[in-house]
């Protein structure tokens, strides 16, 4: 279609006056065709076309994961004594890092409240583009990372930040923690993208740190199988606990059921991607 359109423009060039700038006309036509081609793939496109949407997100996830892993390993090499000294104590990896992650989540939450009030329509447009992961959207790559720090409801952010602080002791250095949190969130988003491409009827926009936090939980289960878990907030009312293995299979079972049944309240593909990634990472260390 692009070649035929450009050939028609070229043929028309011979019939029109020389005063018209045909070079700029052709350049504008090429840019228009290129921009339209970038967003022509939709839920109604063929599976082969939809699969091409996964190429860039996959490369981005692998690149960021490899980069943060390299930083974590370099930190361990340069701070060997401090790393092993911290490994023998249940301490937070870095208070400033945790504070920063929570602050970013809280800030974006407040921006959502402002945008949803209707007083900042441009802000709403920006948030919807970069803070909601959507494989069919215009910013499918950056939104994978942005959505990991994005929450709209008070209950959602409160639960996620509570669990985040509960599993923050899983690593003893800030770079390993940042690697697990960031890569877990990206892998979770990528899993959601695969589901949206393979089953476009369930495609939708997603947000929240659940995938990244489940990555940390999966890592904790693999590294510390003797650890005990409980349901957030419920344990304050009904004291209880269960083994790490039970926690893993409960999460995997629940999200697998949600995936097969087509439940839409949670992004079950993201949850599965996050916890399986964390578990496999912890098992290999």
User: What is the CA-atom radius of gyration, in angstroms?
Assistant: 23 Å
How far from one another are the termini?
Answer: 52 Å
Spell out the helices and strands N to C.
HHHHHHHHHHHEHEHH
Shape: globular
Secondary-structure class: mainly alpha
What level of helicity do the residues show? 55-70%
What value does the average pLDDT take?
Answer: 80
How many runs of DSSP E, i.e. beta strands?
2
Spatially, the strands of the biggest sheet line up as: 1-2
Offer a few descriptive terms:
14 helices, globular, disordered N terminus, mainly alpha, 2 strands, 285 residues, two-stranded antiparallel sheet
Describe the structure.
It is a single chain. Helices cover 68% and strands 1% of the residues. It has helices at 2-13, 22-38, 47-51, 55-78, 80-87, 95-116, 121-130, 142-146, 154-166, 174-198, 210-223, 234-237, 244-261, 268-283, and strands at residues 228-229, 242-243. The protein is globular and about 50 Å long. The model is unreliable at 1-39 and 83-91 (pLDDT under 50). Strands 1-2 form a two-stranded antiparallel sheet. It has 285 residues and is mainly α.
